[in-house]
Request: fold
Amino acid sequence: MGMLEGKRIIITGAASGIGRATALLAAQEGARVVAVDLSDTVDQTTAIITGSGGTAIGIHANAANEDDVRDFVTACVDTYGGIDGIYANAGVSGGRKPLTELTVDDWQRTLGVNTIGVFLAIKHTVPHFTTKNSGSIVCTASVAGLRANAGGVDYSASKAGVISIVQTTAYQLYGTGIRINAICPGLIETGMTRPAFDRARERGTSERIGQINPMKRHGEPVEIAQMACFLLSDRASYVNGQSIPVDGGLSASHPWVFPR
Ligand SMILES: NC(=O)c1ccc[n+]([C@@H]2O[C@H](COP(=O)([O-])OP(=O)(O)OC[C@H]3O[C@@H](n4cnc5c(N)ncnc54)[C@H](O)[C@@H]3O)[C@@H](O)[C@H]2O)c1
Reply:
């Protein structure tokens, strides 16, 4: 039995990176998956799952748009007869613009996807969870939401907002049996970070990537997927209200001198 056997799970941002890796692993673990993304390549994610005998549907939708969120939650209920968990993972980097170049539009886009998108995922799944007194909500925050130097001001604030939403929502859901947690990934090679990896490879400095954490490497999407699937599963039955770094130990440290 897989750890998500029979569970009906929505995953946003499932066309790429962490979301795709989580969709594939959740299906391997027995989940019936609703893979959501703005990008048409979400169909590749569902094709990989169904091609290997798993169960998935793909939905093109904007995780920051309330009507779209309502519709993909309804699609999960209509297709699978209910919903057991959601991974609110879709996110944008904000482009790492310097503070003085950031516009209000930049802020609204970053917060709209990364923070309000998480709120919408919670708002529209909770009514389905409360009818059965169980459910797991997992969100993607970031080490950028914990401390400086892992993203722009807008991105970092958007992820700190996710950490706060997780804490406050856990108490809003007092006594319901619904759990909510977030993952704070460190540096993971995905569509979002690929330009930085490509630049380092072009400059011949790729061996320096990830060297400031004690694992001395960057992370792979599946290493976040493993935590996401654990949190979505009943094995995490007493884990609630937490934002858990999965970062090779990066966020454990005070500032230190990198040994050369
Ligand atoms: N890669 C890292 O190092 C890292 C570190 C910390 C946190 N994160 C977070 O992980 C999450 C996943 O990102 P990733 O690294 O896998 O990047 P990615 O770019 O590979 O995947 C993000 C996916 O989200 C989708 N998406 C973006 N906006 C959307 C929207 N409004 N509606 C629906 N889908 C949308 C994109 O199309 C893309 O498929 C994000 O929340 C990101 O902020 C990533």
Observations:
- Helices lie at 17-28, 42-51, 66-80, 104-130, 153-172, 194-203, 221-232.
- The chain has a mean pLDDT of 97.
- The longest helix spans residues 104-130.
